[in-house]
Amino acid sequence: MTQVKICGITNEEDALLAANFGASALGFIFYPPSPRYVKKETVRKIIKKLPPNLVSVGVFVNESAEKIKEIMEYCGLDFIQLHGDESAEFCRKFPASTIIKTVSLRGEQDLVNAFGYHVAAILVDRRHAGLYGGTGKKANWELASRIKSKKPLILSGGLNEENVREAIEKVTPTALDINSGAEKSPGKKDNEKLERIFDIVRKADYAKDNTELIFTKREK
Predict the structure, then answer these.
(1) pLDDT beyond 80 at 153
(2) Is 7 among the residues known to form the active site?
(3) 14, 78, 125, 177: which is the annotated catalytic residue?
(4) What's the mean pLDDT when you consider all of the chain?
(5) What's the whole-model pTM score?
(6) Residue with more model confidence, 171 or 127
(7) Per residue, what are the HEC states of the chain?
């Protein structure tokens, strides 16, 4: 099945719920302005309760490399998702196998810039009204589909039960990243929405195999 990351996890109940439905990864947002911000102490406790094969991703926006490394080690994160204006040079401060770089695609130059990142995967989201993510706005699927020629693709941006089937069929990403489309309110997931989304993904999945996996456990 196409891998699914459920992002914006703020509590143990939602984390285990997503795990039970079949999530490959969970995202924890360490960006204080976000309504889904979660403290590192909470994340550490949640990760200790997760199934051993479930991948944990820390989401950071324009944070210092030192702070990111400190939180990564403290919480036991598997991946770092850089969701701000981080440069390709900044990304090289971390092992490429642990980095997901988020981009917002508006034109050809954005594609060129995305291909310049030496990372495990590119996540395509959409910025809106000065917000870095979690806007519920649909990303540019046409440009996103062109990422796959050079980089593993994670598709995000306004994904929900109404459009996730179409996203799989038209873009065929390696993985999906779902946040606001599975919520009751910011930071609180909706049981029924999650169940329906995972059911749709299973039925709509056209992946022939799982040879190209993004979310795999790293060596600690």
Answers:
(1) yes
(2) yes
(3) 125
(4) 92
(5) 0.93
(6) 171
(7) CCEEEECCCCCHHHHHHHHHHCCCEEEEECCCCCCCECCHHHHHHHHHHCCCCCEEEEEECCCCHHHHHHHHHHHCCCEEEECCCCCHHHHCCCCHHHEEEEEECCCHHHHHHHHCCCCCEEEEECCECCECCCCCCCCCHHHHHHHCCCCCEEECCCCCCCCHHHHHHHHCCCEEEECHHHEEECCEECHHHHHHHHHHHHHHCCCCCCCCCCCCCCCC
Of the residues 7, 14, 91, 177, which is catalytic?
7
Average pLDDT, stretch 14-35? Answer: 97
Q: Residue ranges per domain, the chain? A: 3-204
pLDDT at position 134: 53
Fold of domain 3-204: TIM Barrel (3.20.20)
Q: Is-catalytic flag, 125?
A: yes
The pLDDT tens digits for 74-88 are 999 999 999 999 999
